Amino acid sequence: MQIEQIYPFVLVILFAVAAGVVGSFAYMKRMLLASDVISHLALPGLGIAFLLKYNPLTGGAISLFLGTLLIWRIQQRSGLGIDATVGIVFAASLAIGAAVTPNEDLLEALFGASQRLSFIALLIGSAAVFVVLLSIFRLKHQLALSVFSPDLAAATGVRVSRLDLYFLLLFSLTVLVGLRFMGALLGSALIIVPAATANQLTSKMSDFVIASCAASVLSVSLGWTLNLLLLHSSTPGPSIAIVSALLFGASLLKKI
Amino acid sequence: MSTILSVENLHVAFGSRIIIDGLTFSVNAGDSLAIIGPNGSGKTALFRALLGLIPYTGAIHWANGVRPAYVPQQVAADRQLPLTVKDLLQSKSRLLHLPVAEVELVSAQTGLTQDIIDSRIGILSGGQFQKVLIAFALLGHPDVVLFDEPTASLDDLSEEHVYELLHSLQKEQGFTTLLVSHDLSIVYRYATLVLCLNKTKPCLGPPREILTPQMLEELYSAPSKYYQHIHNHRKG
Fold first, then answer.
1. Which class is domain B3-67+142-235?
2. What is the pLDDT of residues B107-165, one digit of tens each?
């Protein structure tokens, strides 16, 4: 086995750790709907990049970044009815992406692929994960206060709107790292589901974040192996998402 | 006594609806200011403006270095939130770089038992939750504490208990309080100064001057007419 073959697995595990941590705060911030849309926002960029035969991840990154700013603006003006607006952005980005993506590339754009990974790509991906983890570690107290009460956080000196933007950008960066494995449709699955699983099992914030990470890493390892040994699909995304959903199902049993 | 807060010609509006229209008052250090007025007279809006949470025009001056703390009427926190009381208090303590012992100190002062400290915030009773909010506000020794109807969701006994606690903490620590309350007996007992808000003419003075039957009728007259109207309408 060549060393290059390990690169995708290393990155997907790192992605799982970042997704577990970011997901636990996204869960507490009750921004699951908005965050689900964020991963879909990569789709128009992916599609245009496929069309122009350009690096799809760069295209995805650009439309993700622009889309994140858009979602942030919408959140700022929540009086407009955030549910409806987010729903519209969701439908529009999915439609634009599906319309512009060449047919043969559509499946990869939607569900990801476990293509080969260069050493440089591994380095960039790892650096992104490092940035996400370090930032969340530094922001954890501010985030904890803002999920409890934005007003009390602001009265304590937290700049809530800036914090929201920063968090959304970290969220997008995490989605971007996982995009090649999970695709635009399942991009946020690993951010949302493990956090929901962890919430069933823990009550303290630190336990919650660790459990979310553990559920995420477990989903990825089991899903990846399942795909490699049994399903032989071109992408591990669906099997990873299925395992994470099964783990959530198992966590529900605890309460019964 | 030194002025800790001065407000000049404050205007707050939500869209085209004017909530506060040219309010001017000041508060001295050590004062206990009660803010009364009918529903919709802008009591909560005033607090939110003082804390810089909503846009306003006019001037709000806090004395140098003063950071007001806030006990809100309610916190719409998700009951499923995986946060314990300890998580919450520690987060504030770390953000303000307070000594480690501070959380324990404030918990003891506000009567939070270890059991409560280790609980998820979602499972607390109304009274326990209110104590947590007070402990949260008192972390970091604020010079001013803004209480927005701290007992709105409590029964009479718990209410009495919370006010006793507030009063003894204030005597002990000497912070200035701004209190929104509907309960005039509480205002009479604890306030040194009363600010009444209404659409026509705000008034400011010691409780014995403000809390007269005549003043109160003037203050609350607008809403009672409003209710009368609805009542008649239903009959017809």
1. alpha beta
2. 888 888 899 999 988 888 888 888 889 899 989 888 899 988 877 666 666 777 778 88
User: Residue B226: what pLDDT?
Assistant: 38
Locate the domains of chain B by residue range: 3-67+142-235, 76-140
Contacts of A144 in chain B (CB under 8 A): 83, 87-88, 91
Distance CA B91, CA B193 (A): 34
Q: Which two tokens stand for residue A62?
A: 């650009």
Are A205 and B52 within 8 A, CB to CB? no
Q: Does A145 touch chain B (CB under 8 A)?
A: yes
Handedness of CA A218, A219, A222, A224 (dihedral sign): negative
| Chain A interface test: which of B71, B75, B83, B178 (most A C-beta within 10 Å) | B83
Alpha-carbon gap, residue B30 to B174, rounded angstroms: 6
Which value does ipTM take for this structure? 0.80
Nearest to B91 by CA among A175, A153, A41: A153
Q: Which of residues 172-231 of A touch B (CB under 8 A)?
A: 198-199, 202-208
0.80 exceeded by pTM: yes
- B104 vs A54 pLDDT, higher one: B104
B77 and A149 within 8 Å at the Cβ level: the answer is yes
Domains by residue range for chain A, with CATH: 3-253 (1.10.3470.10)
For residue B58, count other CB atoms closer than 10 A to its CB. Answer: 15
pLDDT in tens, A38-71: 778 888 888 888 778 777 778 888 888 888 787 7
The closest CB to that of B51, out of A144, A155, A198, belongs to: A155
Q: What tokens appear for A152 in the block?
A: 């009390």
pLDDT digits (tens, 9 = 90+) for B26-68: 898 888 899 988 887 888 889 889 988 888 988 898 888 888 8
User: Hey, are the CB atoms on A148 and B121 less than 8 Å from each other?
Assistant: yes
How far away is chain A from the Cα of B67, in angstroms, using its nearest Cα? 8
Distance between CA A110 and CA A181 in Å, rounded? 10
